[in-house]
Backbone:
């Protein structure tokens, strides 16, 4: 009897993936005899490619521009680098899952993805802390102590992310016992639970910091408006815009990551794989949106981008280049 080999999704336990490939043929179209490709994996690979290209632009701009060495730009560069590696990990996982199938490659690529997304979320928290400190200590913020503190934050978050990414390779995986697998193979249920709880704690801290930032911004705007009554309307509009920007940042982050975080906390490997893909895909969108929110809206980065691309700066951009950045 001839057996036709199937290529299963690399996120799922092996036996379960084969059973699902047979029972859910509507989700896995056949490209040629014996070859199965999950369309969800194709979408994730496409997202990874877009993430890589978009964030590579940000990394190159910051690395190429000596003027972008302030703490804020170092943190934005860290975020872009983390998202870039996450995109590379998603693309590499697809390639290895369908072209070079081995347990070692799964451990490496999933470890890279976990480490990259952990560094991405950590960088978002670091940016939030930096924005809070820049407002709370406005007079003494631009000092050598701030630069040192920024480097310490970067070393800690990347060190923690690398350690988390190495855990599957060092034996913290479910390859020996498929029943302990989480919704993301080869992470165990305990691994996923710890990561989910850590994310929720970081989100709670970011929420608290953004609330404090809103209070500081509104208090400063109110004080200025009392001193200059004729500017009250202008400051009201500026403050409302700043608070709206913070709400968009936090809302986007929660909308992208919260579904997968909550799902991985309550689900295990027995749940239908479509739920895993449906919650994981929005999480990757956060890495697509991050450059737009944190990098491309920044006027200094816009200026550097124009210099790199065509060696010119639009007049309206050059006039605003030294204006304060968005909250």
Residues:
């Amino acid at each position: 009897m001839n057996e036709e080999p199937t290529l299963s999704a690399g996120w799922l336990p092996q036996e379960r993936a084969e059973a699902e490939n047979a029972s859910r043929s509507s989700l896995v179209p056949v490209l040629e005899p014996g070859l199965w490709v999950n369309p969800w994996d194709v979408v994730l690979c496409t997202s990874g490619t877009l993430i890589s290209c978009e964030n590579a632009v940000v990394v190159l701009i910051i690395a190429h521009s000596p003027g972008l060495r302030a703490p804020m730009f170092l943190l934005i560069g860290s975020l872009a680098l983390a998202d870039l590696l996450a995109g590379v990990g998603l693309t590499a996982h697809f390639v290895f899952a369908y072209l070079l199938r081995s347990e070692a490659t799964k451990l490496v690529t999933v470890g890279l993805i976990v480490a990259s997304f952990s560094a991405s979320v950590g960088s978002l928290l670091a940016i939030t802390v930096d924005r809070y400190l820049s407002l709370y200590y406005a007079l003494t913020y631009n000092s050598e102590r701030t630069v040192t503190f920024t480097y310490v934050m970067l070393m800690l978050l990347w060190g923690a992310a690398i350690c988390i990414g190495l855990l599957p390779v060092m034996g913290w995986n479910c390859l020996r016992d498929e029943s302990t697998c989480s919704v993301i193979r080869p992470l165990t249920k305990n691994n996923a639970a710890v990561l989910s709880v850590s994310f929720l704690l970081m989100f709670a801290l970011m929420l608290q910091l953004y609330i404090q930032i809103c209070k500081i911004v509104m208090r400063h705007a109110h004080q200025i408006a009392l001193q200059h009554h004729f500017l009250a309307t202008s400051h009201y509009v500026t403050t409302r815009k700043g608070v709206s920007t913070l709400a968009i940042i936090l809302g986007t982050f929660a909308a992208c990551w919260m579904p997968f975080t909550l799902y991985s906390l309550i689900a295990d490997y027995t749940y239908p794989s479509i739920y895993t893909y449906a919650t994981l895909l929005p999480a990757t969108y956060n890495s697509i949106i991050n450059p737009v929110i944190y990098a491309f809206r920044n006027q200094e980065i816009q200026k550097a981008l124009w210099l790199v691309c065509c060696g010119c700066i639009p007049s309206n951009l050059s006039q605003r280049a030294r204006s304060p950045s968005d909250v």
About this structure: The CA atoms of residues 135 and 216 lie 7 Å apart.
